[in-house]
Description:
Layout: E1 2-6, E2 11-15, E3 19-28, E4 34-40, E5 53-57, E6 62-65, H1 67-70, E7 75-77, E8 81-86, E9 100-106
Antiparallel strand pairs: 1-9, 2-8, 3-6, 3-7, 3-9, 4-5, 4-8
Amino acid sequence: EKAFTSRIAMQNISKIAQSRVFSISMENRNGATRYMQLHDTATVPANPDAPKITFAIPTGTTVVLGTDFFTNQGLPFAVGVAFAFSTTEHTYTAGTASEQTTHVTWV
């Protein structure tokens, strides 16, 4: 099991290979709702890439999802797993890096 934490990147590749996500912690310091996206890709997400799954993060909150959401099997990604902090829900539109902290646990 590995983990990746970002306080400065708006998007990043966590793993370039088949993988499973087991937990994610997302903090939004922006004045508006932001969206944490997980993409099934081996490249850094770019505008307007569509995510595999999106999580809404309300203003000034931290959202934590573990095996209660992902189950003990984790959420599978066939190509790789990359995360993106977005201002839009259904496609990637870059947010501001300093407005978020993300922690992803995967294998």
